């Protein structure tokens, strides 16, 4: 019985280690947390070792980055408009005082809660492949399991030839929600259809698999965001997964 309790405790602790949002202060110290809200000036969170406890708050000006449990990162730079300050050298994100002018630079999105590819050469939108996904929990190895998100077909009918400076636009219905908790971009493995391993389960508990790191830059205060990538993607198949929705939005990269 003692061995069993020890094993359960070890599994739980290991799971905690992989399931935290990490708030990194500008002084280098870290807060293991569950981020609940991000406003113009502050980040609200619960401490991970007391998840049922009170909500704490830290000023954005003291934070350099948040590393989310899904692998995405949100970088806080004093010069980025999404944090309510100015960056005169950035030709994509407009200064906060010119929000109306910033919105005018982007085409109007037909629908909310759907990502669109933004062609910056002619400032046009491309609608991604909208398709339903299926989630399955399957055995993996002797004791483990994997949770797989799959969509039909081995390639998307939406092809993008450009692999550098990829940009997408999305309008969230709730402007107060943290976009990192609503949307993620994942790569596909082709096994008769397009698949992504969302979770792996084993001796260390249920571990969320990282998607592709993306950054959200706020265009206005009504939920409009520009999605950018921190690095170029390889040739292959990808889709945006909207958290708690079966609908995904796919595209393929050529060359």
Describe this structure in words.
- The protein has one domain (2-97, 110-253).
- The protein has helices spanning 2-17, 99-104; strands at residues 21-25, 30-38, 42-47, 56-59, 63-67, 73-75, 116-119, 124-127, 129-132, 134-140, 144-151, 159-160, 167-171, 183-187, 189-190, 194-202, 205-208, 214-218, 224-229, 236-242, 247-253.
- With 255 residues, the protein is mainly beta.
- It has 2 helices and 21 strands.
- Strands 4-3-2-1-5-6 form a 6-stranded antiparallel beta sheet, with no helix packed on it. A 5-stranded antiparallel beta sheet has the order 8-7-13-19-18, with no helix packed on it.
- The protein starts with a helix and ends with a strand.
- It is globular and about 45 Å long.
- Mean pLDDT is 78; it is low at 1-18 and 79-97.
> Number of domains in the coordinates?
1
User: Which regions contain 5 or more consecutive residues with pLDDT less than 50?
Assistant: 1-18, 79-97
Spatial order of strands in the largest sheet: 4-3-2-1-5-6
What is the makeup of the main sheet? 6 strands, antiparallel
How many beta-strand runs? 21
Rg for CA atoms: 20 Å
Query: What is the CA–CA distance across the termini?
Result: 57 Å
Beta-strand level of the residues, as a percent range? 35-45%
**What is the molecular shape?**
globular
- Series of H and E elements: HEEEEEEHEEEEEEEEEEEEEEE
Instruction: Give the helix proportion (percent range).
Output: under 10%
Tally of alpha and pi helices: 2
Give me the secondary-structure category: mainly beta
Rounded mean pLDDT score: 78
